[in-house]
Amino acid sequence: xxxxxxxxPPEVAAVGSAVVDRIYALTxxxxxxxxxxxxxxxxxxxxxxxxxAAGLARLGREAGVVSRVGxxxxxxRVFADLxxxxxxxxxxxWGDERTSYSLILRDPDGxxxxxxxxxxxxxxxxxxxxxxxxxxxxxIFTSAYAPDPVVADLADLAGGDSGDGSDDPDDPDDxxxxxxxxxxxxxELQDRAARRETIDDLLxxxxxxxxxxxxxxxxxxxxxxxxxxxxxxRGVRRAAVTRGADGALLLDGGEVLEVPAFEVEVADATGAxxxxxxxxxxxxxxxxxxxxxxGRFAAAAAALNCTAEGARGGLPTEDEANELLD
Length: 326
What we know:
This protein is an alpha/beta fold and 326 residues long. The protein has helices at residues 48-58, 73-84, 128-135, 148-158, 186-189, 196-203, 213-220, 224-233, 272-286, 291-305, 318-325, and strands at residues 12-15, 19-26, 38-46, 63-70, 92-95, 101-106, 112-117, 139-143, 177-182, 208-212, 238-242, 248-252, 255-259. It has one domain (9-29, 36-325): UDP-N-acetylmuramoyl-L-alanine:D-glutamate ligase, CATH 3.40.1190.
């Protein structure tokens, strides 16, 4: 970001996790009481909020991140990577605790287990300056990995509640749009991230609700197609439930659309869902494309990200995604 752009509000402000990924390629994913051997290991940067911001920056959008890192080597690496990608890091907080991290265990077929740790992201809280920054954005993105008080704050902002009674929640020009990703099963989120009750409250104010098959089932107790129907019944107008190689289902008002996945040579599926979400925000919320066009664009972005190692290894530009579509 240049000096001239420093005072400009971001198009998208991503709130929540910016972490270090410790990736272990294993002989197998161990069963309970079982074991495995590490064939290869590496370290990269990740986190849902940071990944989505990185995807949007790669697509040419002005993006900022509101997160928290520790004042340690890992935190400095996370911060430097965001800045190098042209992402606004003005609202990244520094703490004395450990930078949050993910242990990603991957077998030869690409199946994964992800284990989270570190105190920095769970300690994130929004300041008044953060809230003002977010109000100036066109879109706020967050996920269920953000701390519950933060998600509740964002639901209030999306509902037009600034505390002074001046906002109109029914006026889309008077508030930023809110995109929410139910990234993990509720059992994984317990005591560190968004609570079920907060997610329930958020449904009626979010402009785009995204879930994967596992997280949707944990929250709603049903499969992808039934989850879409349930979200519609609860007042959600735009939603996506991703199904990996089986593509995704989109909800647009009363219409449900099938979005097939693109067939590519997969190097690493880590971050594919985040690339899909970035594509939807870029094309649907900001770009004004139809749900069909936005869904296909998001699927192309997700597929291309799978062709390289790491959560952000294959993030495409808009031209690269459009080339795959063509």
